[in-house]
């Protein structure tokens, strides 16, 4: 079955309230919002999501926890450096990543929280962003101030992430179970806390000194759910004009975008757009991101069955490892 093509030349970033779908997926209002999501998927691959059902108090508690974590001494944060922990979880040091070869490392720091796996399964804990999560010592940041709000928020936003995958499935002609293979085997859904300091004056200027909060990239996984604080910074490339479009922050919404896995699965009919972060504010910017990646052993075959003859089809794990290796410049053969 072939996906319908949608030609939309203007930059399309709709705000979509999914309340009707959460109440009755078969209603006329649900069918209309699914149509709007399909149009977004075939144009920018971005849309703004309202009616998500996650309590504002839960979001605030996570932002508070994030600010407390990033305010810790650097040495404390580096004690749980993700490059030293099994499963690629923990602290993501300042200026350790870049998606572009001709810019300085990104002016951001982060923290990865992964899918929990059985502690007695050594095979599980060596995978990407899963296994034993690591936390700062409780004498410097208590469980109630960090671990608890993190775990509570993660449970809620992970469910929302899979609901968004159901919405994307509803836009496709392959039935509601099209992503069941991705959902199998304790699927990967890492959460990332991010802190962007104010950008120095030369940020955004051409030349060797160019440094962004997050350099231009497409996301690696299936779908991404971004929660922004009140500070602008996210920009999406308008492919038609070559200009960067600011996505205004709104604490009541999530920015949803498709990743490269969905683009591949749909034969590039659905889009994964370049985006970046530039913190032009005078204060720190915080955001929280959920990456829905799925079953690491799932092979990323085109949904229409039109993979090239003899084409090597990567698993989710192989795809993610390749992208992470390039962005962190990790040496080939390293444990990741």
UniProtKB/TrEMBL annotation:
Signal peptide positions on this chain: none
Which Pfam family, any one of them, does this sequence belong to? DIOX_N
* A biological-process GO annotation: small molecule biosynthetic process
Q: Which GO terms describe its molecular function?
A: metal ion binding; oxidoreductase activity
What keywords sit in the KW lines? Iron, Metal-binding, Oxidoreductase
Has the keyword Metal-binding been applied to this entry? Answer: yes
Q: Extract the SUPFAM superfamilies matched here.
A: Clavaminate synthase-like
Oxidoreductase as a keyword of this entry, yes or no, is yes
> In what residue span(s) does the Fe2OG dioxygenase domain sit?
186-294
Superkingdom is Eukaryota
For this protein, the record's InterPro entries field holds:
DIOX_N, IPNS-like_FE2OG_OXY, IPNS-like_sf, Iron_ascorbate_oxido_reductase, Oxoglu/Fe-dep_dioxygenase_dom
List, alphabetically, the PANTHER family matched: 2-OXOGLUTARATE (2OG) AND FE(II)-DEPENDENT OXYGENASE SUPERFAMILY PROTEIN-RELATED
Family affiliation: Belongs to the iron/ascorbate-dependent oxidoreductase family.
* Descriptive protein name: Oxidoreductase-like protein
State the species of origin: Aspergillus ellipticus CBS 707.79
